[in-house]
Amino acid sequence: MAKQLWMACLASLVMVLVVGCSSNNGGGNTDSTANNDSNTADSQEAITYTFGRNMNPNDENVSKLEKNTGEKLADNRWTRLFKEQLGISVDYKMLSDSTSYDQKLKLAMASGDLPDIFQVGQASDMQQLMEAGAVEEIGTLYDEYASDLLKSIIESETKRVFEPVTYDGKVYGFPIKMPSTNGYSHLWIREDWLTKLGLERPKTIEDVYNIATAFVKNDPDGNGKADTLGLEIDNDFRYNMQGLFWAYDAFPLNWIEKDGKVQRGIVQPEMKEPLALLQKMFKEGLLDKEFGSKDNGKAMESVVAGKTGMFYGPHWMAFTAEKTLANDKNAKWITVPLPTKTGEPAKIPLKISADGWMVVKKGTKHPENLIKMMNLYVEQLFGANPDYNKWFTADDVQGIWWMSPVYSLDPMIDLKAHQDIKKAVADGTESSLTGSGKGFYDAIQQGNWSINMMFGPGDTPFNFVDASYPGQVMWDAYLGAPSPTEVARGSSMDELLVTTLTSIIQGKTKAESGFDDMVAKWNSLGGEQVTEEINAMVPKN
Asked: Please, which residues bridge with residue 187 across strands?
């Protein structure tokens, strides 16, 4: 309780001081650009902005770039590009990895010491900045200055991408667009185990249960010991096993439209059936008995060791699956179209993905320069003549695209790469590949197992994405900030959900009545009020 009160006080303090920051920004906000006259971008006259970015300066690839080329975050091909073509110099004032960046931003909000242009990662922080009037309204600037290419990328999954940065009908932040397909949950299976046991690939969730049973009882690793598990599970099963819940039209992490309202998916009755299945699997020894105390990294050790034959997870879990080969060189992983209860195609609930938002501090001169920088950025990567090997990655340095003061990705970059590779391999035109398709294909040819497993033309995650996006996608019904009650009581409400759902899977609480009791308590703790608040906050079309 003391911690909750402290957090509530801190949130209030931040709000008060941000308001103070806004009201006092007439001089301070323009200090860093005080020596730079207006219309700088148009006239190419030099201007310097202080920047805040969620970017780890000690990242392995940042070090590689400096070692290979001498380029640093503060002085690299990106910062030089903006200086040479727009007259904009970058001075990083706040630069940290994601763990500490959010805390530094809150302190900067409280002290009124914000950079001129900075990244915001949390919707609650964005909401406070907008309510306090601490950031520039940039919606009209976006409409006026954004290139057709930039608009095509940012709005590719509709203008709902602006919902989290809209306040009183005005847009205050620029979405850092990312591929929403990152939100997929795939079912990964050891195909060599299926073959050894004479099993077919699963099409229904009953097939998944039968395969898990066979993986436990029929000694798939052939060591003569009963030491294998059927399906990986960990203490963050709400996220890491989303694909299993989707099989029943249950959506534990999403706001969904139901009965004419926006509803929290995790408290809907559709959750009961998958929870009952997991309870059954737990009782029958198909799941790890210690899952409640293991995070994903710890639980996946069993997969890597060759003792668990199935898991749910995003496409980048290929990097973990690859480690299995060190223990069993014959291990063969595949992903399959998500099995469902009925065998019908699964609904894929996705949020319109953005890696936070870039904002301009209130009073900063020429806020339109943020849009101009973004125009220039996307032109290098996705324009008529993109230079993938300079701006996306180079030699053994990954993530050069991310080492820029502003950034965004075409949400189709991964899917298009897969489609291009698949077509080129089928047509024998691999030498004509360009862009990300060429980059991924080259990596595959160099023996990169994980890249092949993610984007290759076989039984890969993106083969399923190609077949299901966007036709099977169900976009999240609410994309904005937490409601006031959720901010105040969210941690205790979430603790109730986690402990009860875990107890149900462990067989300590009945799936049917225990779930209903949990929902009643959740509503009394504030869930009903949160739902009403969110429905009031949903933009009305």
From this structure: 312, 336
pTM: 0.86
> Which of 410, 414, 439, 441 lies closest to 426, judged by CA?
441
The burial class, CB within 10 Å (0-12 / 13-18 / 19+), for 325 is middle
Structure tokens at 177: 């667009």
Q: Report d(CA 55, CA 402) in Å as an integer.
A: 8
The tens digit of pLDDT for each residue in 240-276 reads 999 999 999 999 999 999 999 999 999 999 999 999 9
Distance of CA 484 to the CA centre of its chain: 24
Sign of CA dihedral 370, 375, 376, 378: positive
pLDDT > 90: what percent of the chain?
Answer: 86
Structure tokens at 470: 């966007």
Q: Distance between CA 113 and CA 126 in Å, rounded?
A: 16
How far is C-alpha 328 from the chain's CA centre? 31
Pairing of strands 88-96, 47-54: parallel
What is the band of 436 on the pLDDT scale with cuts at 50, 70, 90?
A: confident
> Angle formed by the axes of helices 272-283 and 205-217, to 10°?
10
Helix/strand/coil percentages in the chain, nearest 5: 55, 15, 35
